[in-house]
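Appendix B. One record, verbatim.
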Amino acid sequence: MSTQPALSDLLAVAQEAAYLAGRRTLAYFNAGVPVEIKPDQTPVTIADREAEQMIRACIARRFPDHSILGEEGGESRGNPDYRWIIDPIDGTKTFIRGVPFYGVLIGVEVRGKPDVGVVYLPALDEMVSAARGLGCRWNGRPARVSTIDRLADAALSVSDVPMAVARGEGYRRLSAAVKFQRTWGDCYGYVLAATGRIEVMADPAMNPWDCAPLLVIMEEAGGKFTTWNGEPTIWGKDAVASNGRLHASVIEMLSVPA
């Protein structure tokens, strides 16, 4: 394999890894899997750990010199030009409860830029993936954001309502301005936004592995992904995605000081 793989090659490996790891998680889904609590007070299961190991193994077979950052396994340093960022189960609390809206997340930074992203929802068998300049696909079909251009007609989703409300008046204003709000949280809300089923998805707290694939997915689908202050990054403390047409209005509301 070339030391400078094409984005399409990176995407193919990310898709394969996400799919295989996701299918593995189903062996533990709704099966009474034991739950451990990590030092940061978040839950983890054997499904998380096995899925991450499978993803790392898939990457290592094709790109053994690449860097990897995983939620469960930490960072394996390698070629700094290629960093894979993985969350084996985004929505572990959802997974533990037997709710099918959890996902496997894989993003690839190429020379510091998030250029490849895959989200696979194993229990729904839905995959949304993208690479810079190659478009966004939803189970093989082109994925596009919605064309709604008025907040009054928009659907808003959020991962944690109390935390969002505690951030201050901004989220309250936004939720009052949209047509309706739901709590399709974690990666599932972003999948809905990228595929045109909702217009805005917000997270009041974010880690890079929780959103590594989302910026390129949203942009390639025609939308936007930023922090609540409007910065397009996967390294922010919070995140919001939209269909693009509404983004300026969303940011204007969310960036209001507490």
